[in-house]
Amino acid sequence: MILFCGAVVFILSLKTPFVSEHPLIKLVLPSSTGLSSTQFKSHFYEEPEISLEKIHIQAFYLVPETLQVNMPASWKDDFTKALIKIREFHSAQFKNSSNITFSLLETPVLTQDEIIASIPVGIDRPSRVDLTKIDQFIESKILTPGAFFYRSNFAEIPPGAFVVKLIFLEGPAALGAEGIAILSRSYFTDPVVNYGTSFLYHEFGHALGMPDLYDSESGETFSDGIMGSGRYRYIDYVHLDQDIKVKMGIK
Fold first, then answer.
1. How many Cα neighbours within 13 Å face the side chain of 11?
2. Does residue 190 contact residue 14 with C-beta atoms inside 8 Å?
3. How many domains does the chain have?
4. Which residues 6+ apart lie within 8 Å of 103 measured at CB?
5. Which of 13, 110, 114, 215 is most deeply buried (CB count within 10 A of its CB)?
6. Where are the strands (E) in the chain, listed by range?
7. Has residue 91 been placed in a domain?
């Protein structure tokens, strides 16, 4: 199955761990990952065979047709600034051994409400999450040559890059899984929220396999880093836990 936070063309398997939150909720699904003999310096969390030396984010703005009136005029600038900020944070935390490139689709992707409804939000969730509908939508409407939202410069992926599909959603959402991250647009335009970029990297971290460092049921946090309580702080004043970095090849 094709997926986005690899977020972009990358393949996302629903057999991989899935972590979601809104904002303090987590689901984990069983993992099934193929192994190879190659090990990389910067790599997927606890998976040294999956290189993260190059990461490419395919980002786009997903908007339900019924919510077009809510789109801010500054969305391109807002999202571009956020992407640049997480690129800088990531490069610093990984000591320049893992580098991010990104492309932002130049036009909002309009969709029917049923596609948005397939994205899990809220506290009532099934034990397994089915992203088939949104997966099929991305493939057929964005990544297939000749599709309405297809842009060749957006679909192009640097050789050897791990692809992450990143969705800025017009509507409530905050979740991440291998190769995909989804976050509500409101995190970047709500004047009372100053930690939107930290939350974006938190969900992006899940796309790279990083776990939550808090208990979703009790609210207890195990770290003040960005995968723990630090996601609620401005990104310039937060860090990625050393234990996570070690398990991703950074000593």
1. 4
2. no
3. 1
4. 8, 56, 57, 58, 59, 153, 154, 156
5. 110
6. 2-3, 10-11, 18-20, 43-44, 47-51, 54-64, 99-104, 109-111, 162-169, 174-177, 180-184
7. yes
> pTM higher than 0.85 for the full model?
no
Residue 201: give its domain's CATH number: 3.40.390
Model pLDDT for residues 151-179, shown as the tens digit of each residue: 999 999 999 999 999 999 999 999 888 88
Asked if residues 159 and 51 have their Cβ atoms less than 8 Å apart, the reply is: no
Residues 91 and 119 sit within 8 Å (Cβ to Cβ): no
Which domain range does residue 177 map to? Answer: 2-31+38-246
pLDDT per position as a tens digit, 60-81 = 999 999 999 999 999 999 999 9
Residue 196: what residue type?
G
Nearest Cα to 26, choosing from 129, 115, 132? 129
Distance CA 27, CA 46 (A): 19
Q: What type of residue is 63?
A: V
Give the tokens for residue 113.
Answer: 């409400």
In a domain? residue 251? no
10, 162 Cβ separation under 8 angstroms: yes
- If you count them, how many residues does the chain have? 251
